[in-house]
Amino acid sequence: MLCLKQVCLFTLRRYQARTLCSDLLLSQINGCTHEDEVFSLVGRNKARLSEKHVGIALNVLWQLQKNRPFLLRTTDYVRNHSQFLTLCVLAENKVELMEDEVIVDILYSILRLNVEDHVSLAKVLVTEAWKRLERLSLPALSKFALCLYKQHRQFSPIIGQVAHIVDMKLDSIKDLRILSVLMMTISEVITESFRDRLLHKAERLLEEEHEVHFNYARRILQFLQNVKLKYHPVLEKCNRVFLKSASHLDVHNISRIFGLYEQLGFDNAEFRLIAKQLLSEAIDDYYDPETFAKLFFSLGPMAGSKVRERLLVTAVNMAEEFSSHQILMILKTLRKMKCRNSHLLKKMTSVLHKHLDSYHVLQLVKLTQYLVVLHCQDLELFAKLKTLLLGYLKSSVIPADTAAVIRVLAMLPSFQVEEMIINKAAAVLPQCRLHHLSCIATALVKWNHHGQFHWQNSSELCAKLLQKIPTSEIYFILFLFSALNYDPPENEEFFKSCIQHLTSNLSHLETHHLVLLAHVLAMAGYFPPVLITTIFNISFLSKLDAQLNVLPDMVKQRVHSSLMKLNRAVCLECPEFHIPWFHEPYCQRVFHNSMSQINPQRQHIHRMLTEILGGSHYSRVSVLTPYCYEIDFECVLDVNKKPLSYMAQNTALSGMGGTHLRHHIKDEGTKALPPGAQRIALEFLDSKAFSKDYSRHLKGEPAVKKRHLEMLGYRVVQIPHFEWNSMVLSTKSEQLEYLRQQLYGIQ
After folding, report:
1. Which of 342, 648, 668, 679 is the most buried if burial means most Cβ atoms within 10 Å?
2. Rounded to whole angstroms, how far apart are CA atoms 221 and 575?
3. Is the separation of the CB atoms in 677 and 714 below 8 Å?
4. pTM for the complete prediction?
């Protein structure tokens, strides 16, 4: 009986397919130019509507919306119309009579019209398509998979079956559109080997097809982001597609691409320049909250001063209209722009209070991070965030979430680390995926928790899984070890392995990433020749200059500073490279633009130093050395430990309110010292120079500075704050004796 029913249904569908080609009603539906025309035809012809009429009518309703600008779409009106409900009921009743492609088309159309997943028609269509899954054509299969993806069914058994079919038919897929959709939709349920087969197939089709739609490339990027893989050959090919399709990109597409590039750690200066031009020309076209938030996200970090000001003013005026997601996007962009517009920030935080409960844990993490970096002053908001984050941390069983919460708690102002947090970090460390490892390590750096157990676990985990760490992630891991001045177990082998892995992938890194990476290695005392010669090259530096023009100011400043420090380190530690020191003008400009203040403790030390040496003319304050290191105090002792007088002083502390001029060592020339004399650099190190746990370990930057000053001929005396402020040195006479011992090298 069941077999007979299937034969009858099949025969009926074939018969209707033959007769519909001359169907006048079908032609009328296809000719409609407004949804009311469709609804009028449906209302007058309910009894005559076949499953084919219903399918075409629903598809026309979506096509009419699709062809309108986003802001002019009327999906709410369509979805709530009585005749739309009639179409849905008819479709549900006739679903068994429909052809395979019609079922998928109707499901796609109603989802694009924002019909909710739990509506009975959507459920019926998914069930019927599932029954016919094995016989769906590849175009229909990809469209059905996209529908499931839009319903957030990435982990459902149906997607597993789709993935199996794709695995079996992969060699027969010749259409990149179909492949890109299937890759994106099945990405959560595939193995590594299947992932690699899909990527190689996509790479081949990207090469073979002359005209590739930018949406195909965007879906492939989404696939890479879903599987957390930065596969550079495919990224480059997709980027070329976007460059060719630039004239067809709008703010929605550009913001999506920038978002994916950011998540994948990929950047391209040429695409940024083109996007900047396109968005700047169309800035007046984006006046609703959704499109403006995307414009702000895409254009803000690259905008010139005039455009930047226009964006900020518009954001202030529109603040009350932004959704919770759009507020996150605006704050994220402000952080990139390094813009602390207090008026806009106050408007945003006032709106945020009502949205806090709508954010999930990772959104709260991002929100907290942005607010801290932007110097938000809303203590009530921070208190709420702290409570929410600690609540999530106590109940969290997901390593990635735990690592992210620990990282952001370390950023909160005046946050005191609790033992529970440290224990949670220690417990989750062996379970962390590699790209979350740096979150916990960064928190430990911030709290200066230099526990041997945690750092040994971190370094051992990195060493074991080095080949699986994305190249861009290795920078952050090396930065943490260098910043804390921590030598991991088997130090030489660890850094050697990292350097070997990096140097074999140099072509996959952007120019500014190479500079940051080389500086981190230099801090640890490593100068890979291939990396140094690549960077200190006219062609490379020209390319770097062009790229810096489209990078956010915060990144730009960090890269400039890192290049200067790298240049200095190479000149001092690796003269065999014959790299010239070309950052003198940069350093002079930076120092000239900064106001130098001498704090009360340094003033106090200077007075005592004057007393010990016998006068202010025996020392100099805030000296700029060759290669532009600034040191607190400088003096010279002869062979008999007697101070040598300076003929002139740039600075007298008295009467200057604590502000003083720097004394550049070149002002008087670098005179040769008498035989046996010694130039001494005396530095006061505050709490930022040390870890705050029991070890009080000297961090990387002050350690490098000491190393370099010694290379310049100084004997370096570092006065730790915890010694100077200790009870042992509570009297003036004790402080004088301590300084005298440090100065004259008395044990």
Report:
1. 679
2. 43
3. no
4. 0.66
pLDDT at position 660 over 50:
no
Residues 6+ apart with CB under 8 A from 321: 289
Q: For residue 385, give the H/E element and its range.
A: helix 379-395
Query: Tell me: the pLDDT tens digits for 164-209?
Result: 999 999 999 999 999 999 999 999 999 999 999 999 999 999 998 8
User: Would you say 265 and 230 are in contact if contact means Cβ atoms under 8 Å apart?
Assistant: yes
Residue 174 tokens, joined: 């010749």
Would strands 678-685 and 630-637 be described as parallel, antiparallel, or unpaired?
Answer: antiparallel
Residue 20: closest CA among 53, 67, 68, 59: 53
Q: How far apart are CA 166 and CA 164, in angstroms?
A: 5
DSSP, collapsed to helix, strand or coil, labels residue 454 as helix
Tokens of 547: 């790229």
CB 245 within 8 A of CB 213: yes
* SS3 state at 622: strand
Cα separation of 136 and 150, whole Å?
19
Average pLDDT, stretch 265-273?
88
Residue with tokens 């995307």: 294
CA dihedral 366, 561, 587, 590 (to 10 degrees): -10
CA atoms within 13 A on the CB side of 333: 27
3-class DSSP assignment, residue 33: coil
Mark 227-266 as b/e (b = at least 16 C-beta within 10 Å).
Answer: bebbbeebbebbbbbbeebbeebbbebbbbbbbbbeebbb
Bridge partner residues of 480 (DSSP)? none
Given its phi and psi angles, is residue 464 left (phi above 0), alpha (psi -120 to 50 degrees) or beta?
alpha
**DSSP 8-state class, residue 646:** P
On the 0-12 / 13-18 / 19+ scale of CB atoms within 10 A, 118 is exposed
Burial class (CB within 10 angstroms; exposed 0-12, middle 13-18, buried 19+) of 52 = buried
Burial class (CB in 10 A: 0-12, 13-18, 19+), 721: middle
The two tokens of residue 43 are: 């209302």
Q: Which of 408, 409, 410, 454 is nearest to 432 (CA)?
A: 454
Of 396, 398, 400, 368, whose CA–CA distance to 381 is shortest? 368
Q: Which residues 6+ apart lie within 8 Å of 83 measured at CB?
A: 38, 39, 42, 43
CA atoms of 269 and 282, how far apart (whole Å): 20
**C-alpha span between 499 and 526 (Å, rounded):** 9
What's the chain's average pLDDT?
85
Q: How far is 193 from 409, CA to CA, in rounded Å?
A: 38
Task: Tell me the HSE value of 89 on the side-chain side, using a 13 A CA sphere.
Answer: 9
Q: Is the dihedral of CA 348, 353, 354, 357 positive or negative?
A: positive
HSE-CB at 574 with a 13 A cutoff on CA atoms is 16
The answer to whether 443 and 410 have CB atoms below 8 angstroms apart is yes
Mean pLDDT lowest for which of 350-359, 423-432, 709-718? 423-432
